[in-house]
Amino acid sequence: MTYRMVDLIQKKRDGGAFSKAEIEWIIENYVTGFVPDYQMSAWAMAIYFKGMTTEETAYLTMAMVASGKQIDLSAIPGIKVDKHSTGGVGDKVTLILAPLVASFGVPVAKMSGRGLGHTGGTLDKLESIPGFNIEKSEDAFIEQVKTAGLAVIGQSDDLVKADKLLYALRDVTATVDIIPLIASSVMSKKIAAGSNAILLDVTVGDGAFMKSVEDARILARTMVDLGKSVGRETVAVITNMSQPLGMAIGNRNEITEAVNTLNGKGSKEFRTFIAELAQLMLSLAGESKSIEEIISHLDDGSAYAKFVAMVKAQEGDPTAFDHLTAELNVKYKVEIHAEKAGYIAAEKALGVGVLAMKLGAGRATKTDTIDFEAGVTLAKKVGDFVEKGDLIATLYSNKPITAELIAEFNAAIEISNDKIHQKEIIEIVR
């Protein structure tokens, strides 16, 4: 059946619900170019204001899956697991979690993205390893997962073509942060990527798209239901992104933190958080492991060995790890010290993330070049006590670090007389 796009825009504008056939027609004709960007923009804005039902969101997700190639991972033995984060600051979880899970014999086949704005991208961090290749053919991707146990590569241009077009459009029409469009974007890519089971890390707080736990809960529930509706075992974890994750924000310094964590170093809280996520991913693959067992793979080198195997398989230079774990090599370095004594009450993730981007660690636009050495390394986190003059953080850049940039960091920090405790995992949605 043929429709008129203007009629479909009007239908949603007036609060109507689309049929499966209508959504399939919209997506198919948008990908072919029959539906122009200006009408798709109006359609997205109508959804922004009127929303979509659960049924509509499921129809949209599967129509987007059908718009491109789907990966068949059946040649890889066992239950394949994947993980996705909705984005944040200092989020190097995949770099640690994927090899940790693979160290228990569970295959991890992951396609990741690049960073934009204040959110960091896993691919950018991996490319700070000399020689690391994020581009693999489907056959090479599958073979690597079979032999090395894991692979993290860039998303194929042939995968979910509709999402690539629609996301770029949403990004410039202020229609990014609407739950049905976020959920369909994430889940269409995860479903098309072919894994049997999916762990979703839904971040909430200052540095995340979702600012309230209630919104994060709705998004998590929507995505979990979408995954289960097409036979994918799916669990979502709502995690705290009110402060940066871990101590490093950047690219090479996040690789340093990941490598150190994989070698049994790092804070107890961060290691436990990673282990809790690993426990959930392993359970999706039918593996029941205690937190202690999982942390032992960080301490005994098992997880690190998997990371090295992945780096070698993707043409990276593991002998460069001595360099990668050294201090950042930049022209400018500024230490930030506490202006008074007290407890760190806030390290606003958005402010720190935007600052790291301005230092050169991220992109304001997709065409910006990243400086792998730029970034922020924290010395204190929320809940830590500081004396006046104690080191809180160090800023690194190959561009001059102005007084305005220093002021931006200080504006993201609050010190109070009261100790605040923040937990990383807020809720699990099954």
Automatic annotation (TrEMBL):
What are the alphabetically sorted keywords of the record?
Answer: Glycosyltransferase, Transferase
Q: From the Swiss-Prot or TrEMBL record, what is one GO molecular function term?
A: 1,4-alpha-oligoglucan phosphorylase activity
GO cellular component terms given for this protein: cytosol
Q: GO:BP terms for this protein?
A: pyrimidine nucleobase metabolic process; pyrimidine nucleoside metabolic process
Catalyzed reactions per annotation: thymidine + phosphate = 2-deoxy-alpha-D-ribose 1-phosphate + thymine; uridine + phosphate = alpha-D-ribose 1-phosphate + uracil; 2'-deoxyuridine + phosphate = 2-deoxy-alpha-D-ribose 1-phosphate + uracil
The enzyme's main class, written as a single word, is: transferase
Q: What SMART domains does the annotation carry?
A: PYNP_C (SM00941)
- Under Enzyme Commission nomenclature, its number is 2.4.2.2
Q: Which domain of life is it from?
A: Bacteria
Matching InterPro entries: Glycosyl_Trfase_fam3 (IPR000312), Glycosyl_Trfase_fam3_N_dom (IPR017459), Glycosyl_Trfase_fam3_N_dom_sf (IPR036320), Nuc_phospho_transferase (IPR035902), PYNP-like_C_sf (IPR036566), PYNP_C (IPR013102), Pyrmidine_PPas_bac/euk (IPR018090), Pyrmidine_PPase_CS (IPR017872)
Pyrimidine nucleoside phosphorylase C-terminal domain location, by residue? Answer: 343-416
Keyword field contains Glycosyltransferase: yes
One Pfam short name: Glycos_transf_3
Which cofactors, if any, are listed as required? K(+)
Report quaternary structure and partners: Homodimer.
Protein function? Catalyzes phosphorolysis of the pyrimidine nucleosides uridine, thymidine and 2'-deoxyuridine with the formation of the corresponding pyrimidine base and ribose-1-phosphate.
UniProt similarity note? Belongs to the thymidine/pyrimidine-nucleoside phosphorylase family.
Q: What protein is this chain from?
A: Pyrimidine-nucleoside phosphorylase
Protein's organism? Lactococcus fujiensis JCM 16395
What are the top taxonomic ranks of the organism?
A: Bacteria, Bacillati, Bacillota, Bacilli, Lactobacillales
